[in-house]
Structure formats: structure tokens, C-alpha cells
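Input for the complex:
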Amino acid sequence: MAQIFHRSTNLISRVSIFGSVGFIAVLGFALYEIALSPWYTGQHMKLQQPVPFSHRHHAGELGIDCRYCHTSVEKSSFAGVPPTQTCMTCHSQIWTNSSMLEPVRASYRDDTSLEWQRVNAVPDFVYFDHSIHVAKGIGCTSCHGQIAEMPLTERAGTLYMSWCIDCHREPEKNLRPKSEVFNPFYEQPSRIHPVKYQGVSYTDQHELGRRLRADYKIQPLATLQSCSTCHR
Amino acid sequence: MSEDHNLKLNEDQTLRESIDLDAARAKLAGPDAPRFWQSIDELSNTKSFRNFLENEFPANTEIDRKTFNLERRDVLKLMAASAALAGMSACTKLPPEKIVPYAHPPEEIIPGRPLFYATSFPQHGVSVGVLVESNMGRPTKIEGNSEHPGSRGGTDLFTQASILALYDPDRSQSVLNEGRVSTWSDFAARTSNARTGLLATKGVGLRILTGTVTSPTLGSQIHALLSQFPSAKWHQWEPCNGDSAREGARMAFGRPVNTIYHFEQADVVVSLDADFLTIGPGHARYARDFASRRDLADGAASKLNRLYVAESMPTSTGATADHRLPLRSSEIDDLARQLAAAVGVAVPPSANASSKIPSGWVAAVARDLAAHKGSSIAIAGEQQPPFIHALVHAINAALGNVGKTVTYTESIEVNPVNQFESLRELVNDLNAGQVDQLLILGVNPVYDAPADLNFEWALRNAIGSRTLKQCIHSGLYNDETAEFAHWHVPAAHYLESWSDGRAFDGTVGIIQPLIAPLYDNHSAHEILAILTGDSGRSPHDNVRAYWQSQRPEKDRAFENFWETSLHDGVMAGTALPSISVAPHVDFTSQSNAQSASDPSALEIVFRPDPTIGDGELANNGWLQECPKPITRITWDNAAMISPGTAQQKSLATGDYVTLRLAGRQVQAGVFIVPGHPDNSVTLHLGYGRRRAGSVGTGPGFNAYLLRTSSAPWIARGLQIEATGQKYSFASFQQQYTIDVEGHPADEESNAAFNAHRDLVRITTMEEFRKDPNFARDSELEKDISIYAKHPYDGYAWGMSIDLNRCIGCNACVVACQSENNIAVVGKDQVTRGRAMHWIRIDTYFRGSLDNPEMYYEPMPCQQCENAPCEYVCPVGATTHSSEGLNDMVYNRCVGTRYCSNNCPYKVRRFNFFLFSDLNTPSLYGVRNPNVTVRSRGVMEKCTYCVQRINEAKIQSEIQNRTVRDGEIVTACQGACPAEAIVFGNVNDPASRVSKLKTQSRNYGLLEDLNTRPRTTYLARVRNPNPEIKG
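Predicted:
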């Protein structure tokens, strides 16, 4: 029986076979990149807020403690976004005529809430709890990034499950002394910036982390990684 | 839920196969009688039973094909499309969210942390103390109040479900005038005007109709009103109103005193048709006290109480009894008289001698009572006539129980009246044209008044003939009565309003609101304030001012008293003092009016429905879908008959019949109930609502259409006639049946083997003393597994359920539904075995069809250590936690259902459709923010309330300690009035649950499968009287 296809068509089949492999690989790579892109994860995206609040100014330059505004961070799952009243403790005295702060004054005057765009959000089937993290030596900046250097607040991590579980698998990577939890300028121990903990100077994060993990009685890894720790 | 859907013509053979009751009886009497059985279908081994037994979710292929009408090709197309799209469902960007903080924050609220407030739940006037969880100002869950005498920390299903009524989208939302939307201010102005006119006439023609009132503040307002309008009249009406108890007390003592029972001190209890554990004033407290005497902590040395129940329709109390005697309600008269005579109360014999009382039964019970003088209780049910109640008072007096196990106080009601007479008087006045202003507060007489009074006709006639100029109705719903009223004012739910009320012992509890009214709702206090000319006064001011006038404390002291009362949920020292009363000697002789009747004549008995009560709660989906005790019917009432009567009348479960009584008729489906007495039909009230709302309108039939004021509970001369049609019930009876036998390869050896595999394990006190280890599996070789053992170094959560305490009241079922955002699926889905409850109460029968023993077994997820479900999940959506929980990860689940297929306990539930209502905004309010709302295609099951475990763990970790025993209370445990469920850390030998698990009665279900369940049971030990056989 004569061949149906001419030899030259072999090229077409080769191109299409290898081409499709390549196409799927490129497609996979593209999807992966999209899934990790700021557009999709929201990481490093600056959202339009009613007032351009600057953490760099308040927490960084002025040195206001995180808990001055985020009052429930040690008591509740939710760190708390301050009520207008908290803003007005200062802004009834300073910058009283700033047009930028007019929405804040209006909110205080009319008893209507400011509506902030949520920057850090996890899906509704994830139950994150701030209080336990700060109680166990996870600092604010471990998740929220260099907040004291952000003129406008942005999401520092992807907040993906892989991002969470990374630390739940190896908490010593991020533990810091409890006294440093609310320090926005804290740096992990290094030769240049050793961290003192209970009279000992640490230059290595893993060494410090292991010590803190024992001292702070961090739950066993199996518990940290049990599904129901975060999903209910 | 239309009737057409339930009714099927005779030809439809898919519904039910005919069941041969004779064969079932023969099987029970024969050598291969099952040790326990759950339904008559099981005894007959019907196709539908096998279907439910062999599959967790039976494939109702026949029904499905009819419903969906799909061709094979369409199915393939849909499958291909779903497979292609399945992966895409993960490709969603998180929707943008907003954070909206307060401008001025209220005190105490910490965002993300719940607050608990004490208030009282008014249940037919009698209040029960509760603690309500509030999440960011939104009440979400009800718990018992351990400081309240009516609760002591326990609740019932009605209390648990009351939160759903607050958010019910069908609740009435605006003031209506002649059916048109109006406003409260308009109503207030018009009512004020009417007041001016009434003042001139001293209130001639003004009538007020309320339910039972125990609220001192409401009472004082009504009295103030009556003193301003001396010619006005106050009527009270509720269909299940306690008249028999009231009139019985009047007969015995000359006045309607309140009776309080002290079950914790009673060694012997005789119940005459009284379901005191699940119904009536104080039942949650009684259940707790009673269960405290079923405790076997001391093993064989424990002193159990003994309960005798003579009753008609099997109830939870009957199932708990050590001796249950099925008697028609009218035959209780004979039993009560015999018993009274035997303990020394002079009473003439009954005109209706009963042939069903076994010889020697009464004498044996009387001897038992006589041996426990001062520590026994006789109690009569509301269905029994006043004479029986009076007789019971005399029996208790003769036994020296008064002042010990039975105490009396003045009535807790503001004005105890005979409510049937009160309503009759109102109807007569309406018919005579003497009523021109009628105020109906929170009751629905058009639906639930006795048929002979014909309230609807009287009301419509009075309105039509313009003698009744203004009829105002206030209620939660725009119901049957609201339809005819000139004005309808949406009532405030108890979680939205200020009020007060008395508990069964008179203790006052303040009702404080948890939330501002969701709609234009106003309480009865506000309406009465307009009529008394105090319209400026808020309900809060009214309640406070009343107590300020009543209390000796003034100024600061009162402030302290008020704050303490609000905080505790009880007003200290307000329980009514005991009074000493003695029964008249002569009432026994004067009342023997009962005429002799033909014992073979069919009797009809009315009872409030075990889940929706008198119909007030009909629009509550949680209660509608809650399986009723023993019958396990949902979404329906039925004509309940005994197997014997069914055979005699050639009826079967599912036959649609016409019931005729004194010229009135209704049509109902027949349901055969093992243990029901012959020649009697029980109808549950509360169904067949016409205007209840989208849930309550439709299901069942209206038994009130047969009920008359002269025979409100028991009537004779019923005629029953088959229509030839069939009615389909959504009963759990044969659903989730655990397949104990599996598919035995060797029948011989399995018979002996299965004796060790009883799901419920029962013995008597006598046997228990001889063999305390009767429930143990001695032959079990444990710890063999091909899988590596899980280490449990920290906590290991476990549960113990005491079958001796469980009363099968369903409080746990509804509490779980409330805590875990469990969806309601509707009757059709329940029929297919798709109800979503995470905990169910399996009911087992043992013995004959006519008087079986009944056993309850609550079944949550057993949280196996070697969990069969976990090994088969292809996507790792159900995994083992380090503390021994079988975690269920909804966001991973793809719905293969392999896990439920592999679960021997059948405790997994699958969302076949989007059962959670995501489209009704008001229902968002009722959901627990700490539990994911599940979507379609996702498996779910009991998690041991993992949200509560995590909360307690986090709090303990922050405080640098371990979780204390008793700190974590699961929803079912917290709700249980009988304290049958205990949860805790089994790694801690000192924990309560560990100690319970070391009791000799401890056993696990199907342990030979080596599943190592963490939920174990304490076997039931009955305490029968050795003098009574059988």
C-alpha cells in the first residue's frame, strides 16, 4: 500500500509533537507566573484608601507602638483596625486643618465609619489568629514586611498556604524574643547585629530559633501542620 | 412541600412495599429474632431497608430518573463538562474586602471575640435562663445558664432553635393596617385616639387576649390597664396551656397552686402519661435532676432511681423508663385509681376498667412506692383530666412526699385562669357583639382555637358586622390571626426586647435584648404602654421602674441589684416560697362523672408536637428537620397507631386516611408506632399551618380541626377510613442503619460473634452487680494495624456518652446545627437520606412489637484513631490531626464520597446541592463566624467542635498553661440537659472523660474493626423491679 503522507510531512508531525510539549510547558510556566504575580496574589499592590495613611510616618518616624492602634492583636484573632476615635486622639490637636484628614474628621463628627480597603486577607476557610502568633514570638514584620518603611501599606507576602506552612514546618526560621515582637526595625541575628536573649548573644537565627522554640513551648510540628489548626 | 408532592397514587410501588406485621411478630418471637431492631422495615427486611443499610446514600435511581429525566448521553456530556471545569473552580481571585471600624467604639467589644449575655427564653410563659453568645453585636448561639434554676446549664431543642426565629426571613417586618404597610407612629397615634374614646366609656368592649403571662412587669401593665378601664376584660389562651394541672390543683387544694418536683431526691417515680423530661414547665431542669439519679459512677454500689411510665404515645420519658406500660390515655384513669387505692387514698373504682394492666403490676408498684415513702414521686401528664392530677396530689400526700420530693408554691402566673373557659367567654362576647376593641398579643387563636369554638368565624363575623371596630394583632409572624386583624404589629423577638418572666419555681429572670429590633418590631410592653397612656416609656424603663417599685433597695443599692440581676440572669431570692397545702378529702368522691365506654372504640389523643410544639415554631427549619423521638419522622405529623390496630383495620404506614370525629374530619397519613397501645390514634398538634411562612406553611395536617374544648386531649368515637392514596413520610427510622453483620461469610460463627457487636449494650442492675464488665469486648485483640500507629504526645481528645443518662431529647442535634452552620435540606432530601445533622440519635427497639424496650444512642463522628475514611481520600481532604481528630478540610474536598462509603458508622454527610442558603441576607446573621459555611459537593461531619478546641488551646497557650479539664465544652455537651456527653483530653488520666472511660460500662462501637473510636459509650443499666416480669 502506498504511503498516504509524503516524507516531508514528518516535519509537521515532529514540530507539532514537540511544539505541543513546549506549548504546554510555556502555558504551565505562564500560569505559574500569573498565580504568583502581584496582580493575582495582591502582593505589593497599593490600594486606594480613604486617607493615605502612612505606616512609615506613624510607626517608623514617630515610633508609635503597633498596639496603640491595633489594640486587640494580643487578645483576639483580629488585630483590630483603629476606630476613628483613636486617630482623633492626636489629630484633634495636630494637623487639624489638613484637607487630607477631612474624611477622618467627618467620620468622627458624623459617627460614620471610615471604609478601608483590606490589604491582608486570607480566604474565609482559613482561621488565622493574631494573638497566638504574637504570644509565641512571631513579630509583626515577619508577616507584614518592613511596615515601618511603607508610605502606603501593601501586602508583603503572598498569603498563600505554601507561605503559611513554610513557617509552620520550620518555625525557628522566624521566632524572635517576645520583647522584639512589636519592634518594626528588628533584624534577625547576624554577625553584625547579634540579638541578645536572656544574656546570651546570638548571631545565628536557627540557633536562636531553636532556643525560643523550646522556651516558648511552640506546639509540635505535627500539630502546627494539622489541617484543623487553620481550617475548620 | 405541597401536598401533591407527598401524596402518591396507589400504583406508585416505589414508595413502600407492603409489610407483613404477622411475619414481623413471628420473627421477633422466633429463634432468629434480632437482638435489637430499629424499624418495622428492618424486621421485614424490605427492599428500601436493604437499600439504606447497604449504602450510606441510597441510590434512589427510580426517583432520581423521574425527577431529573436525564438520558445517558446527557449524563456523559455533563460529566465531561464538569471534569473540564473542575480545575477552573480554584482559579478565583479573592474578592476585595473592606474593613469598617467603629467611629466611636462601644465598651467591652473586642473585635473577633464573642461576648456572652444572660437573658431568659420565655417558653409558653415559663422562662428558662440562657446565656447568649454575641459576635460583634450579633447573637449567634444559645447556651444554658448554670445559675438559673430552670436550666442549671442545660437546654432543650426549642431553646437552641429560638435563635433561628430571630433571623427568620419570614418574620413580619412592618406594621400593617388592613393588610397595607403602615408605620408604628401611625399605629401609636390611632391607638392613643382610641384610648381617649375608651376612657370615656371605662373600656366597655375592650378585650385583651394574651398567652400565659408570668412576666411581673407585663402583669402590672395589664392590671394598670384594667384599673383605668374597669369594664375591659383580660383573656388568656394557649392551646397547650396547663389547664389540667391548674384545675387539678384547684380540685385538690381549692386554688391553682404550682407544683415543683425534686427528681434528684426521688428513688421511685411513677409517671401517668407525663413526658416530664421533654415537655412542660421546668423540663430541662427535671431532666438534669432525673439524670443525676441514673449515674453509675460508683459502679455496682450506685443507687439508681426507678421510673415507671404508663403512657399512650411512646415518648422520651417512656423510653427512659424501667417499666413502660402502654395504656390508652383513657385507661390511665383506672390505673391511677387502682394505684391510689393501693397506697391508701380512698377512691371509687374506675368506670372504665382496663384489661391491659397486668395483674400484680399495680400492687408491685404500690409496694415499691410504699417502701420509698418521702422519696418517691407520682406525676400526671397534661393530657390527663384534672381529676387524675388531683388524685396524684393525694397519692403524693399519702406517700409523705409533700415537702420532700414534691413542694408547692403559689402559682407563677400573674392570673391563673382556665384558658379554655377564658377563650370561650371571649368567643361568646364576640358573637354577642360586645367586643369592639380586641388586642391579641402573641397568640394565634384563628389557627389553634378548639374547633367547636369556631374562633375564626366569630372574629370574621364580628369584623364583618362592624361590631368589632378595631382588632390589633401582635406576633412574630403575619399569621392566620394577623390575616383578619385590622392592625398587625410585628412583635419583637425575645432577643430584641426588654421584659421579664418567672421560671417554673417562680425565680424571676430579666429578659434583656442582645440586638436592636431588626425590623419595625415592638414588644407587648410598648403596645400596652400606649393604652395605659405611658407611651413615652420604653420597655426598658417599664421593666426597671416596675422592679424599682417592688424592691426594698434604693438608689445605689438598687443599681447594684439591677446590674447583678442582669449579669447573672436571675434575680436572687425571687423563687416563690414553699407553701403547705393539703388535699381536700372529699374531691375523690364527688368526681366519678366519667361514663363507661366501649373499650374497643377508637380513641383519639392530641399532643403537642415533640419538635414544633403547638405550631408556634412551625416556621423553624431546624425544628422541622429534627427527627421526632421514637418515630423519627421529620417535616410531618401523622395518625400514629399501634401495630395491632394497623392489622385490625388493615392499615399500613403511609396509608392516607380520613379521620372523622363528631362530624369533623381531617386527612392524614398513618404511621405505625411500636409500643403504641391498641385502639388509639395519636395526633400531634402544630402542623397544617396556613400562614406560617415558607417553611411552616404546608407540612402535615391540622389536628386542631378535630379538637374541641370539651375534649381537648382525649376523645372517643373516632372513625378511620382509608382513602386509597399513599402518603410519603421523611423518616430517619431506617436511614443510617449501621450494618453490623456486614456480609458474613460464615453464618454459624457470626451469630456468636455478633453478640459481642451489639451497638447498644444493656443490662439490668441485678445483672450488672454480678457482671460489671458485661459491656467489655474480652476477645478483642487490639493494636493490630498495617499502618503505623499515630503518636499522641500532647492532647488526645475523646468523648464519652452515657446511655444511662441520655433521654433522647434532641437538644444536642439542634445545638450542633446551630454551632456548626449545618444546613436544612427539606423533606424531599431527607427522604433520600441526605439530611445533614452531624449528630443523630439512633433509636433501637428490643422485644415485641407491642411493648418493646426503647434505647437511644447519640451518634456523632466516632473520631477513630484508625479511621477508615482517611485512608481512602484521594485528595487528602480528610486527615488525622496530631490530637486524634479526623480533620475534614472542606476546601480540599472534591466530593468523591469514598470516605462516607468507607465509614462503618455512617456519620459523614455530603452536600449534594448547595444546601446552605447563601441568598437570604438575614440568615447570614445566625451563622457562627468560626465555622466555614459549606458549599455544594463537599463532605462534612462532626469535628468535636474544633473551633472551640482551638479557641481554648490558643487562650491556654497565651496564658502559658495547658487546657484545663472542662474548659472545652462541645456544643452537644453544653446543650445536653442530662449531662450525658462528656468531652476532654484522654491523655490526662485525671480528666472527667478519662475517668468515665475507665468505668466498666465503657465500650466502643464495632471495635473489632480496629477503628479505635475516640467516642465511646457507657452501657445502659436498667433498674427494673424484680417483682414485675417482662
